[in-house]
Structure formats: structure tokens, C-alpha cells
Design goal:
Elements lengths: L20 H12 L10 H12 L9 H9 L13 H35 L4 H18 L4 E2 L4 H16 L5 H13 L1 E2 L17 H12 L3 H6 L14 H6 L3 H9 L7 H7 L12 H20 L4 E2 L4 E2 L3 H13 L7 H17 L5 H17 L1 H4 L8 H15 L14 H7 L5
Parallel strand pairs: 1-2
Antiparallel strand pairs: 3-4
Helix pairs in contact: 4-5, 5-7, 6-7, 7-8, 11-14, 13-16, 15-16
Length: 433
Amino acid sequence: MNSPEYTCVCYSLRALNIIDYNARCFEYLSIRAPKAKWALLSLESLALECKTLTDRNDVEFDYFPLFHFLKELPTSLIFEIRTLSLLTKLKYLYYKRKLLSLLRDNFFNEYSEVVQRNLKTCRGAAESEVILRKLARLFHVVLLNPELTSQDMYRYEFMAEVLNFCYDENIQDNELVIDLLKITIKMYVVELFDARNVRQPEYTQGFLKYILEHAAKAGFDVCRYINAHPRTMWEYSSNFYVVNSVSIGNIEKTLLLLQYGIEVFSERDIRKCGHGFPFIEETIPPAYLMVFHMMSNMSAMNNFIHHAVRYFNNNIYQLTRDQMECFRLIWRSIPTPFVKQAQMASAITNEFFHLTRQAIFNPTRYEKNTKFSILYETSFVDLASGPTEPRQLKHLSRCTIRDCLRQQRSLPSGICKLSLPTSVQRYLNLEYD
């Protein structure tokens, strides 16, 4: 059976139609350097070069040679460059830089339209992967600015939908999916006002697992990369934080994140939940800060959605059953002993007086942490009461094995390769205590 033939269409660059550019070049250069070889500066030569490159209909032939072409323009005036005034040189550089910027933006705009049409007519995942690889290569060659303005929002919306397309078509190229994910996460805006009308895609329930699987296979730390880009426009990035899934009481998502080895309470979270003075020693242990942070987020969520019963005496909200179950799931994945309320109260008092000795009086933090410790005690009596004891040896063994697999980027797929009984594999996968 003969393979179908595909017609190639050349898409011109509208950025070449800059009003009065040719006339300005002629006016400045003809007066200052009448014998200059300014034909190399004309848009006709540049348009011919761009058309020749875009006719090849592939990304790798588009902009890399164009950069060299633009760099060669000043060398054509080597014998008469001294006759040009400083104003002429500055205007020439300005228009050349402006032209290149417009070429980039307009080229991506037209190329994204071509990609969208081609993806709709693809006849399989293999054909789609070829198009997506060219798209990923375009970002590396053209080097588009990740900082977006109100006119560039279509670029983010397009890339966010490309990730959704990868999931729908079940693209299995790990490096390709992670590359597209990085490009999307990098995009940000300086002025939040510019992002007010951005359309965020709606991902289905299995999208999170799809990204986690590819990240694990590619050895890519999603959370660390998101933390390195805190201003990302990709709102879905909040789904990769365990704290957020616990706050909304999503048991399935919490278990999924823990199974893939997502860190529960990172160094960034510890600094965020501390007293806020970097040159003063922290006296509250990280495990206590984690409990305060969890209680704070869960009570804030309940306060926001008005979904819990209020304690009128302490102004605290009770936790839902799903939130409590999510919080208990966390202790399956960490070797830390259960936190006791009496020790938390002592740590809160010690921190208050420690800061007071440093001439820092912060009663608000003391009161909030005290309320959160009471909320923890009333919601988890079995965890918060009694003496402090180490965790069971069986649980510590589970944490050690999982930590080794996590360092090798083998969670949870590496568990089934250990040749263990099914019940032990389920235990290592945090499916039961």
C-alpha cells in the first residue's frame, strides 16, 4: 500500500512588512555613506533569505542561518563604516533588533497555527511525536523570551494545550514530554494584570499520573523545577505539592504523590514556615513546623469553603474526614516519630522567649501556633498524646527501601522489580499500614 503524499505549504513572515523600514535605511545611509553597499541591508535581500529558509519547511533551517545573515550585515560596510554618524549606527542597530524581535514573534504565531492544524490531522502517536519534536527544537533555536506580555499570552495557552494533547494521544517519549513541560513551566509574567484573561486548560484526572510517570522515567524532579520558577503561569503546577492535596482532602492525589516519592516538606517549606529571621537559630523542629503548616492550610481551606463546624471559643475549624485521612497518609511515607502536643507547646514557648531575648516580640505567631497545636491534638488524639516512641521497625524498613528507590528515580516502578510477595509490594507502595 502506497504511503499518502503530504503537500508542503510555504508560510511567509508577515514581520518583513515593516512600514517605512526600507525608506529609512535609504535615507540615513544614502546621505551618510552614498557609496556603501547598502543593498545587503535592504529588506529584499533579507526577505529572499528568509523565504529560502522557510521554504525548506523545517525548524532547524529557519533561524540559525538567519542569525549569521544578520551578523554579516555590519561587515559589508567595512570600508565606509567611518563615514557613518553615531546616530545612523544607533538607528540601524535599533531597526535590526526590532526586526529580529518581530520575526521571532510572528514566526512562532504562524508556526503554532501550522502545528495545530497538523496535529489535528495526524494519524498516530508516531507522526505527532515528529511534529512535537520540531516544536521543542524551535524553542531551543529561536530562544523565545519566557517573560510574556499581554500580547504573548497565546504562546502560553498554546504550550499548555500541547501538554494536554500529549496526554490525550498518550505520547510515550519521556524526553519530549519533559522538554515540553519545562518550556511551559518557564513562562511567566511580571505584571499579574497581564494574565487576567489567560485561559488555563482543563486537565483530566489521569494527567497528573501521566506527568509523574514520565518525570520518573526521565529522572526529572518536577517539584524542584517548579520551585525554581515560582512565577510560572502554569497554575496546574500547584497539583504537585503534597500540602495542597492534603489541604483539599484529595486522598487519591495525596497517595499518588507520596507513591511517586514527592517530598512532603522541603527545605523551602521549612524556611517559609520558620520565624523569618535568617540570622537567628530556629528552635522549632522541622516536624513540628510541618504539622503547623498542614493545620494552617487545612483550616484556611475549611474557612474558605465554609465546610466545617466552628469552635466558638478558640476560633478554630475542625478538619474533614478526608483531610484527616490525607494527613495520616503522610506518616506512612516518613520515618519521623509522631509529634506530641505537649512537646509542641513547649517548643512554641521556647521559640517565643528565644525571639524575645533577641528583641523580637511576636505574639501573633505564638497564638497561631498554639491554636494549630490544639487543632492537631483534637483531630488526632492517638498521634498527639502519649510518650514519644520510635516508629516500628517494619515501617522504618519501608522508609529506607523507598528512600533508596527514590534516589534512583525508581518510585514506584522499582518496587515490582524487587521480587517480593504482593502483600509486601503493596506495603512498600503505601497502600496500607
